[in-house]
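Problem 12. The chain below contains 342 residues. Write out its predicted structure in token notation.
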Amino acid sequence: MATPALELTVDGPDGPREIRVSNPDKVYFSALPEGTGRKIDLVEYYRSVGPAIVRALYDRPCVLKRHPEGAEGEAIYQKRVPPKHPEWLTTATVSFPSGRTAEELRVTELAAVLWAANLGTLDFHPWPSRWPDVEHPDELRIDLDPMPGVTWQQVQQVAHAAHELLDGLGLPSWVKTSGSKGLHVYVRLLPGSTFLECRRAVLALGRELELQHPNLCTAAWWREQRGQRVFIDYNRMARDQTIASAYSVRARPDATVSTPLRWEEVDDARITDFTILTVPQRFAEIGDPWEGMDDAAVSLEPLLELMARHERDHGWTDAPFPPQFPKMPGEPKRVQPSRARS
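Solution.
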């Protein structure tokens, strides 16, 4: 039976906002202790890390990954803000290859996050670019995705290798747990880079890491070529591709959170250390490890130079795009190597 709605008051830029939380006692996370995995606990979690989640999402068009039946229920990827929404909510108009457009949520205040959480939003999937210049990313995202059989220690090793490589190129980097299986490494960018350039930059990084650590990681797109290694998913930087933001809750019964770390924390960190029950206290004690990211923006040029060196020294050009993309200039045949041979 549904429980009566609650009304929360949240400060906004021009006065208080009233956020309605419907059915607040509905269980969203079955593996948490009774009374801690409810819808209201999700909303209160986001309120507790308010400055950090707003900073992670600020001015970015955002896809909402909703689970209105709880973490183990069906996922709804919602790109368009519902027609009926608070008048103070801000949006961003984005376009797709089909020519269609969407008004996506653009977070500028905590009330927008709590409004989305009331809709059952667990994960926020923001673009790597900000309104109004949505076609030029300011965030390079490196997704370290472990293939079956890969240990957590291997993921940690690849993260450190990426950190070392980026440092050597003069690019400060930032790390977080994915909240699911892997780690994410970010680089804040100066304005002006295109999605194609950013994707090529991550591809170059992945290939260089594979050269240096061939038994540990790979940038191979085809699963049959990856083996038991960590995949550097360069296509996460293709246009219209997103990943869960920092401080997003993941759709797991134990309510894990994609949590920013200090680099020196990586060796001791575990995905399950960070949940809606533990992250608020951590945030209260140490703040946001990513707070200084916006002051550390750099040029993409060192990675583009690395891509050019790979082309010159190894003859490597581009790599396959995701299947929903049209054939792209310079892209090799989009066919599995085993099928191409046959």
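Discussion. The chain is about 25% helix and 20% strand. Students who got a different answer should revisit the alignment rule from Section 12.3.
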